[in-house]
TrEMBL record:
Name of protein: Thioesterase superfamily protein
Keywords for the protein's UniProt record, in alphabetical order: Hydrolase
Pfam family, one: 4HBT
Recorded coiled-coil stretches: none
Lineage, uppermost ranks: Bacteria, Pseudomonadati, Pseudomonadota, Alphaproteobacteria, Sphingomonadales
Protein species of origin: Sphingobium chlorophenolicum L-1
Keyword Hydrolase: yes
Length: 125
């Protein structure tokens, strides 16, 4: 995971319905949380609506367990003319000792949208 995690954008607790047959949380559940958090950061940068256009990299480091408190961190990694890449790191607070466990990391790219849902330039940084 990256040294600079950015801000905590979401903090969630998975439910029983989010468990797969291995007793871990579905990978799709965490991808959804990451997309939500990345979209929040990207829409602030774009000052308007955005759409996910790519997940450039994704690494699952450890499973998410029932009872984990899942924190989703995000920050801008790079910017193009109409798009922004957001680094998203997910960390669990686990057990009575509140151990921090790195779970997953990914780089999501979002494009700024105009009123016709077409790409538009990002505002100046």
């Amino acid at each position: 995971m990256t040294e600079q995690r950015g801000e905590v954008v979401l903090r969630v607790v998975p439910h029983m319905t989010d468990i797969n047959t291995n007793g871990h949380i579905f990978g799709g559940w965490v991808l959804s949380q990451m997309d939500i958090a990345g979209g929040i950061v990207a829409s602030r940068i774009a000052q308007g609506p955005v759409a996910t256009v790519a997940i450039e990299s994704m690494t699952f480091i450890a499973p998410i367990l029932l009872g984990d408190i899942v924190s989703v961190y995000a920050h801008e990694e790079r910017r193009g003319r109409t798009s922004v890449a957001v680094r998203i790191d997910v960390v669990a607070t686990r057990g009575r000792k509140a151990a921090k466990v790195e779970l997953t990391s990914g780089l999501f790219t979002f494009v700024a949208l105009d009123e016709n849902h077409r790409p538009r330039p990002l505002p100046e940084a």
